[in-house]
């Protein structure tokens, strides 16, 4: 029996509010930033969900599926938790989804465990989130999952010495560890590990130091938006490229800010699980569906994370309706085809096993726009950070 | 030696960008004594207009810069008449609240108009090159900013210390009632000075966009940075802001070369130490 | 008798919140916690006249202290509050030695710098604090050993509300004490107080420390209710929002702090729910309207309305 239903107050009062709803409507609460500097995520989730529903309908079997959106602003675990409570108690949702930031996901862990609510993470990428509740399922990626493959790729290209430059916060440290472990396992050498304060606006000092040390490549992880913009600009302007120091990154060239980076971005190497330029019919269909929306947002990993997340929720509802534990049971080991390629929900880490591609930024001659061109698959891996 | 030169070159270049962005604030806040938290908003408006004219419409850089500055001032002057004119008379905290409210409206407007992603400002080819200094290279746009910063400092100094307008401005700021009694049109002086501050903000926003890229949340993201420059420099002193910006640029750059891991803590600790020793700032009066 | 109306109204408001938002108790609880933080700011800013945009430093210190205390030492809620209050007070004391020598913009910048340093320390000490992922694993014992923190948040709400009522009562007594009156005097005319021999520096420091302790209590409550502490507790945005709420409600009145917080958070919540993309328009317009038409804050609204209705010649603002 669900705890939330066991509380008399919740049941009596909610009957008044939701009395009109059909018994077979299953609600999914989406907690994501719809306002503030990260509002793009919310738009992307919303449009990916709409695209999925346009193609697959709004019902599965006898269940009508309804999405309820709630704005978490930026990193705000207190708000995230209270929104989850509101969704679970008042709106009687049976599934939760969204979650862009790690603290916001962690804040709901006790709630979803107690109420046995399957919760699909569309983005938050710290491995250990899934350890806090067995009801977490993740359709995005983890930082280890993408930063270890770029190390493999680099070693295969003959790169032997690297300096890592990461933003000095949780995700940056994760990326640094993932890269270093994989690179050193192959026999490469990380000659320096620089951690740059999050508030950095001028990266010149860090990149000048890198240049002076003359490694074969520099690995980077910085948060998206202004920081990435300033970093890539500075990388180019300080002549690291001319000095032959390769750029190794992950999400730095993501699609929502790629055009703003301009020609400076051409030739940058990244390893990632999704590029909007992925060559498949399913991806082209996905892009076309988003393009039909009013005011379509740029499609990037967040869009595809949400799209696959909805697919997973539909699968779970079809198999188990509103029975949380049975739904999670069904999801484990599930395989499906996504716009990014084939996916398997890893039964152990509850993060998808997927292809990680090597990409290089180039200008598409037809559209004149910059894109992440996939040169090939580096590895097909699950969450490499799970056992760390 | 190489390290020392690097710190000096990068520090001065970075400091000059800080100065360019903060100098408008030291005009409105330092000279006119209005706690203008919406300063970053005007910088953002300038940057956003430059994005629209330059990147979206493809106009040349010179024309873009001119239109963006004119556009920002055209927005600032009515705001001065309708809102700021009354804000001058408020207490400090009411000024904080009013200008924060205004900042929110600016952010919401740009967010609604252009979205929340980065708004790239296209630089002319010549500024995108790297210039060889012998021992290393430096991006041309930073050299341009250094030149521009020096000329703005000189220009403001001449304007405020050497012209009739400057005399009147100082009189109006020191004692508005007496200045009015002497037949100085203080309303007009305030309006012109405010427009100057907004124009400088826009210029700084555009020229600094390579380092502090423009987006809808720019005014809040960098608010503290602007305020620190003015506070360290001392209220009412353009030269103080100049020295503070260069000093802070050198300081931040030095900590990033020497103690990259601890640079934020070191930076703020030194700022605290400085302000504790000189609460009025480097060249502040009072 | 008249003195009882306002506190009773406040208690009624608290009870009303419980029944008005039976499904949103978590939200109501967040409001009450924020009221405590804004009250601490009212003491510091409204009474002692110390402008600060760094009250988040003490709030965050209280949150981490209470969280760590619950995880490693004792999970009793009240003991956690004491830990939070102590942490806030100690941080306020240490930083206050330097801060209270400054004033105006310089002081504001110093308070921001202190909060930034705290943020950076908590970020770097990730072995202890969890860094950017947040401090997790906080599980509280029942209140008084009886009332478990429940899923809906009933216990959480009454517990928080009770603490808020105590803090409020304490502040009402404090601001009417000789100490509080002295603060008011310093605020209005520091020179005169100095002239009559009042230890201005030490009184301001004492007010800052008491304010720090209360902010620490607010932080401790947030850690206990959310079971997670994030770096954002130190964020500039939080301190700035607290200040907006205070000025919105009206400074130096205590009730203003409560009203400003409830109105701001309620408008924010409603506007964000209706149009998440553009709610900032609503907040910005509201802030501007208040500052222009009700310069003493929302608490002066009844008086302003009375003036308007009477339409007396002396009514002009």
Automatic annotation (TrEMBL), chain A:
Organism annotation: Flavimaricola marinus
One Pfam family hit: Peripla_BP_6
Signal peptide boundaries: 1-23
Family of the protein in this entry: Belongs to the leucine-binding protein family.
Xref: SUPFAM superfamilies: Periplasmic binding protein-like I
Assigned keywords, A-Z: Amino-acid transport, Signal, Transport
Protein name (Swiss-Prot/TrEMBL): Aliphatic amidase expression-regulating protein
Matches recorded under InterPro entries: BCAA_transport, Leu-bd, Peripla_BP_I
A single BP term in Gene Ontology: amino acid transport
Leucine-binding protein domain: residues covered: 25-361
From TrEMBL, chain B:
Its membrane topology: Multi-pass membrane protein
Alphabetical list of CDD domains matching this protein: TM_PBP1_LivH_like
One cellular component (GO) term of this entry: plasma membrane
Any Pfam family the entry gives: BPD_transp_2
Membrane-spanning parts: 6-27, 34-53, 59-79, 100-123, 143-160, 189-212, 224-251, 258-277
GO biological process, one term: amino acid transport
UniProt subcellular location: Cell membrane
Predominant localisation class: membrane
Alphabetical UniProt keywords: Amino-acid transport, Cell membrane, Membrane, Transmembrane, Transmembrane helix, Transport
Alphabetized GO MF terms: transmembrane transporter activity
InterPro entries: ABC_transp_permease, BCAA_transport_permease
Family, per entry: Belongs to the binding-protein-dependent transport system permease family. LivHM subfamily.
PANTHER family: ABC TRANSPORTER ATP-BINDING PROTEIN, BRANCHED-CHAIN AMINO ACID TRANSPORT SYSTEM PERMEASE PROTEIN LIVH
Protein name: High-affinity branched-chain amino acid transport system permease protein LivH
Organism of origin: Flavimaricola marinus
Lineage: Bacteria, Pseudomonadati, Pseudomonadota, Alphaproteobacteria, Rhodobacterales
TrEMBL record, chain C:
A molecular-function term among this protein's GO annotations: branched-chain amino acid transmembrane transporter activity
An example Gene Ontology CC term for this record: plasma membrane
Bilayer topology: Multi-pass membrane protein
Protein's UniProt name: Leucine/isoleucine/valine transporter permease subunit
Subcellular location per the Swiss-Prot or TrEMBL entry: Cell membrane
Key words of the record: Cell membrane, Membrane, Transmembrane, Transmembrane helix
Membrane spanning residue stretches: 7-25, 31-50, 105-122, 157-179, 200-222, 279-305
InterPro entries: ABC_transp_permease, LivM-like
Any single Pfam family the record assigns to this protein: BPD_transp_2
